[in-house]
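Researcher: Structure prediction, please.
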Amino acid sequence: MLTNEDSPGGGGSPWPRQRFICDQHLGALARLLRQLGFDTAWHAGLLEPEMARRCVNEDRVALTRNRQLLQRKSLGPALLVANDQPDEQAVQVLAHFHLADQVCCFSRCSRCGGIIDDVDREQVAHLIPPRTRAWLDTYFRCRDCGQLYWEGTHVQKLRGRLQTIIDRARARAREDTP
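Model: Predicted structure follows.
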């Protein structure tokens, strides 16, 4: 995993302060925002009244594709997500809130959003596929759901994808700034 200094986007505080909640149609965006290090709540069965309540009670910004949801007076701060494509959605969110320099890639669980910590290899040896265990010594685990992570060959491709999102968000934020 990456430290904040190593992450695409670099420095800043180790934990981005912006917190989000995504509507039930934005699961892929929620996963990307978590991979970028943002506290992002989401679940498939999330109904509008619950989303509005959590937005206010948990100090979250609602991200939605539903214009009707934006009309709820109880919702609090919200952003209408304009695109269907998750990468484009992430660019929009990062640019709109000027968050490209606050990313902390791979610091949160993409499954539940919990914080990821280093874990001793011996503690999780029984969970590691034998071929992976043979060549890799460093592992990470979610504090909340226990999901195990390691930097396999897929991580380099994902780093490139996240860097592209960050770079495009920076460029868009500059274009939108008067």
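Model: Residues 64 and 91 are 15 Å apart (CA to CA).
Researcher: Thanks, that helps.
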